[in-house]
Amino acid sequence: MNRTRIALLILAVCLSATCLSPRAIAADAVFIRALNLNGPALEIDGRKWEGSDAADVVVNGKLFENQAVALKPTTDPARARMIRSSVWGSKVDVSVGGLPLAECQVVVYVWEDNHTEQFDLLVNDKPVVEKRHSGAGGSWKRLGPWRATPVDGSVKVSARTSSHGAANLSGIEIWSGQGMVPGMTGAAFVTELTADHTAFFESKVRPVLVEHCYECHSAGAKKLKGGLMLDSRAGIIKGGDNGPVILPGQPGSSPLIRSVRHADPDLAMPPKKRIPDTAIADLEAWVRMGAPDPRTENTVAAAEAKSAIDWKKGREWWSFRPLAKTAVPVVEPARWPVSDVDRFILARLEKDGLKPAADAEKRVLIRRAAFDLTGLPPTPADIDVFLADKSSKAFSKVVDRLLASPQYGERWGRHWLDVVRYADTAGDNSDFPIPQMHRYRDWVIRAFNRDLPYDQFIREQLAGDLLTSRTADEAKERVIATGYIANARRFGSRVDDYPQHLTIEDTIDNVGRAFLGLTVSCARCHDHKFDPIPTADYYALYGFFQSTRYPWPGIELEQRQRDLVPLVEPSRLAEAESARKSHDAEKRRLEKEVQKLKDSLKDKTGEEKRSVEAKISEAEKAVKDFIAKPLPFDMAYAVAEAGKAVDAAIQIKGDPAKPGDVVGRRFLTILGGQEIATTDRTSGRLHLADRLADTGNPLTARVMANRIWLHHFGKGLVPTPNDFGKQGKPPTHPELLDWLADRFIESGWSVKDLHRTIMLSRTYQIASARSEDAVARDPNNELLSSFPRRRLDAESLRDTMLVLGGNMDTSPAGAHPFPPPSEWKFTQHNPFKAVYDSKQRSVYLMTQRIQRHPYLAIFDGADPSASTAVRTSSTTPLQALFLMNDPFVHEQSREFAKRVVAAAKDEPGRIQSAYRSALGRTAERPEIEQCRSFLKAARTRLSESGTAPDQSEAEAWQSMVRAILRLNEFVYVD
Asked: Considering only Cβ atoms within 10 Å of each terminal Cβ, which end of the chain, N or C, has fewer?
């Protein structure tokens, strides 16, 4: 015997000894007792169950029974009878006594007879299940086991819901504390078929299934209905989306038989015409036999394999490939490019037989750069300095000056706020205001101004509260940054059963679009139809946010904020959190006292009623006074860690009432699928942020580089900036995109460096005029033979008018003048609505979700309820009417006219001042003459209308500058 065989023999003996050790095998737990909480004694799974009259059992709750409800999934008659009779209520307690003092294990049966409810389960007053959805009518579940130590020989099982909710507890099993609690035993399908079995199936059953069922329930169905496949034995055993369809030996309890009988119109199969009674009888006989099925082909496995994601093919898609180290192309003429950006652009133009346009004039170029980087026009003085600078670095100086301007952050911060669907209100039915939300807006602006590296920009928004900070101020800033997650939309009006899954979906949707350019939320209900993102990946991400505490903005049925985050140094956070919780608890106590008094008023009359009304007034004043006393620190509308980090269960078809398998928290499989460390006890948001910001992630740098290119040229190299998947459009210049993304990373993720790279290229500095050949060959200018002409967006248009009028307030914007929280009485029929006039930059306008700001709605502002990657650019009569008639335009025109008149003593000089300020150029002689003719005609008409001479002069100039503000040249950038 050689050494290898001896070693294997010794290993086998050791393994056998280990396997046979009683310590290595835990025997099944010992059954102690089981209780049918609202019904007779039964036998289930071969074990005796006691009825509702059992000794040593105390039940606190209402009794309910409805044996007509069809259970999902179906089960044996005894278990079904137990399930459909229950103890229910918003507060149910069951004490089971007569138990040994040693540790035991508890199993609980719950069910739903009507509509889904949300409840918590507790064992010995300790939560074991939180916020569980009971499911649709007929849903049931055997939950547990949970370990518990009897107190004085008793174990207490409790259910809690909101005051208007209800939980149904049907049965309880108690097992010994050691060993495995056995699962439920069910009726078995016949596996060893006789000749008679096969003959019966082939002659009586298969023909019925083929004729009446396969059209909707087979591998060959155009669209599989209900996830049910009846064309194989595997499909019969698996069942459909609602569970098993056959209970072997029990035709009366089998959903398939109930369906073909048309016992329930909603579940009738086939839906239009009932099959013959003889066919139904044959199916019943088949089920009674144990559903013997000779078919061996596994159509379920085949269908799953067919629909499974092909990961190898998925990774071949351009955006999932690693960033390519692309060689810069050699081009002719070699002297035209001034940067590698130009070489990529020129190479593509040469390929299509096109030539680049001539260079733009310097006046055009500085106006283009000023609006691109600050959203504001250059001043005449800025233009003069640039024109006078004949050095080769003249434009580079302009770019650096604009990047150093505080207006840069306001401009580019607004671009980011578009992407993350920023709003100052919650978006629920009542659209509650969020007074603290401006802190996140201001953080974004500061981040762009200080050129916060983009990878850190990601980390702070996803997990700023989990990062180690060097100073107290830095820690506060990073907490504020998580306002990105907190700003997710809210829905409905409910409190205890608030649809948190929708807020988390909104979060995941935006994370996917903003950072990865992927529509991840399309995998919520099923695997993504186009991109390699399975449903399991969606719920892997869901776990990060399910383990996160979101702030509560207030909602119709609870009109107050809670769970905000104190802005204090980390060493004081625990103390501040305690103070916040105490403050919230006291506020709730005072509010409950008011409600208690109001409830008692219903039964009061006369003097007693007046006395209670007086007490209500006093109690309401106490609430108002308490709210008016702020905490000794500021609060951020930000996120924090939830009480417990948990992995999420897949929600079948996106329904939280139908939980499936639990998925561990991890990143998207197609991008590496890195799992959270087993030692990580946090929500894992920092793990997620690190994966998003990983240089090995091919999407993040591409997506942001594309966004920056987009806002310089009006269109991204990828025309669909939020969708780099198969439903999006591929890049027009893939090599250039990878080159830019690679440079972005190598620069330390510097956004400002990428601006310089793009703007100092010759491609950025060419004119917008297009040749006839270019229009014919490239009608959409995708190849960039000329600079794309673009219209000013809503904010730039309004801000420019404020600048021209000399009215812009450049002071820090701060908070909006929302009504104080003590006055919040918003409902879905009386939602919060407001418009706050302001002379500050448009990025600081209060933005609502339900009601769009009227100006931003007219001029295609961002949608505050969904990520806006690219703004639309419409041309409507309302826009023209606004520029002619709106009081804001008239006010700015009046002040602009005063400045124009003061700028020179003669008409031509004043006209030149108007042109230089509004259009960035001097007026030509014919234009001066046109303006003078306009002024003369305006004075005449005003004089004829009886207007005083001084007023006529002022109004004539106002009319002229309003005409300039309506010129295409004013509202477009070349």
From this structure: N
Which pLDDT value is given to residue 163?
67
The terminus-to-terminus CA distance of the chain in angstroms comes to 88
Half-sphere exposure of 804 (CA within 13 A, CB side): 32
Q: Which two tokens stand for residue 925?
A: 């002689």
Structure tokens at 463: 């997990």
Amino acid (one-letter) located at 841: R
Instruction: Judge whether 132 and 648 are in contact, CB under 8 Å.
Output: no
Residue 8 binned pLDDT confidence (cut-offs 50, 70, 90): very low
What does the alpha-carbon distance between residue 874 and residue 860 come to, in Å, rounded to a whole number? Answer: 7
Q: What's the pLDDT tens digit per position in 299-357?
A: 888 877 777 889 999 999 999 999 988 899 999 888 999 999 999 999 999 999 999 99
| Buried b / exposed e along 776-793 (16+ C-beta atoms within 10 A) | eebeebebbbbbbbbbbb
Flag whether pLDDT at 21 surpasses 70: no
Give the CA distances from residue 29 to residues 157, 708, 725, in Å, rounded to whole numbers and listed in that order.
Answer: 20, 63, 51
Query: Residue 235 in contact with residue 241, Cβ under 8 Å?
Result: no
Element (H, E) at 196: helix 195-200
The whole-number pLDDT of residue 1 equals 41
Q: Give the list of residues 6+ apart from residue 247 with CB closer than 8 angstroms, or none.
A: 74, 75, 76, 186, 187, 253, 254, 287
Contact in structure between 564 and 436 (CB atoms under 8 Å): yes
Q: Which of 925, 891, 895, 931 is nearest to 911 (CA)?
A: 931
CB 648 within 8 A of CB 543: yes
Number of other CB atoms surrounding residue 109 within 10 Å = 24
Return the minimum-mean-pLDDT range out of 358-362, 590-594, 875-879. Answer: 590-594
CA distance 431 to 408: 31
Confidence category of residue 186, pLDDT binned at 50, 70, 90: low
CA dist 651 to 116, 303, 525, 534, 536, Å?
14, 21, 7, 13, 10
Q: Tell me the pTM.
A: 0.84
Asked if pLDDT for residue 13 goes beyond 80, the answer is no
Tell which residue, 530, 485, 504, 866, has the closest CA to residue 670.
530
Alpha-carbon torsion (898, 902, 906, 908), positive or negative:
negative
Strands 140-148 and 972-973, sheet pairing: unpaired
SS3 at position 425: strand
Q: Is 249 exposed, middle or buried (0-12, 13-18, 19+ CB in 10 A)?
A: middle
- What pLDDT does residue 74 have? 80
* AA letter at 390: K
135: number of Cβ within 10 Å: 22
Residue 561 is encoded by which pair of tokens? Answer: 């904020």
Q: What is the pLDDT of residues 365-388, one digit of tens each?
A: 999 999 999 999 999 999 999 999
The CA distance from 374 to 494, in Å, is 43
Q: Is the peptide bond before 73 cis (omega within 30 degrees of 0)?
A: yes
Q: How far apart are CA 642 and CA 501, in angstroms?
A: 15
Please spell the DSSP secondary structure of 766-820, one letter per residue. Answer: B-S---HHHHHH-TT-TT-SSPPPEE--HHHHHHHHHHHTT----S------PPP
Chain-centroid distance, C-alpha 749:
25
> 777-786 pLDDT, tens per residue?
999 999 999 9
What single DSSP character describes residue 239? -
Q: What is the distance between the alpha carbons of residues 37 and 39, in angstroms, rounded to a whole number?
A: 6
CA dihedral (878, 880, 885, 891) in degrees, to 10, reads 110
> What separation in angstroms does the CA of 395 have from each of 366, 760, 919?
8, 8, 19
User: Of 757, 746, 786, nearest to 770 (Cα)?
Assistant: 786
CB 387 within 8 A of CB 836: no
Q: Which two tokens stand for residue 749?
A: 């993720």
Instruction: Read off the pLDDT of residues 665-695 as tens digits, 9 standing for 90 and up.
Output: 999 999 999 999 999 999 999 999 999 999 9
